[in-house]
Amino acid sequence: MITGEMKMFDYEFSTGSKSDITKKKATQLNTKIYGAPTPPMYPLENLKDLPVMIVCGRNDKLCQPGDYMKLKEFLEKQNSLLAFIETDYGHLGICNPIPSQEKERLEAAKKKGKKVVVDEFNYQVIYDKIAQ
């Protein structure tokens, strides 16, 4: 939603490449799926009778706070927002947060002054061996 518009998945944007060949393939894929070279807008007004809960993360690099706050405001205006939960997780952390026992190990390591990195892609906590 970098453009400020709520559109369906854009295959051209997702390639991240400036290659004309890649853009051409992505545009063809958009056309095949949506019937047009660019994705259509989400018809958010159709959510009027559907209760929606938004769960989002301040550290999400794919859907940033400015984006989900616009959605929240829109849903509030049409009385569709059931709940809004904002966390400190990133994109994958919301889908699969760190298990509770791993959180306990993380907090214990932090208290001992160890440097700790959370690997969101593999859903695990990595402890810095040097800081032990």
UniProtKB/TrEMBL annotation:
Database matches in InterPro entries: AB_hydrolase_fold
Origin superkingdom: Eukaryota
Organism: Strombidium inclinatum
Protein name: Uncharacterized protein
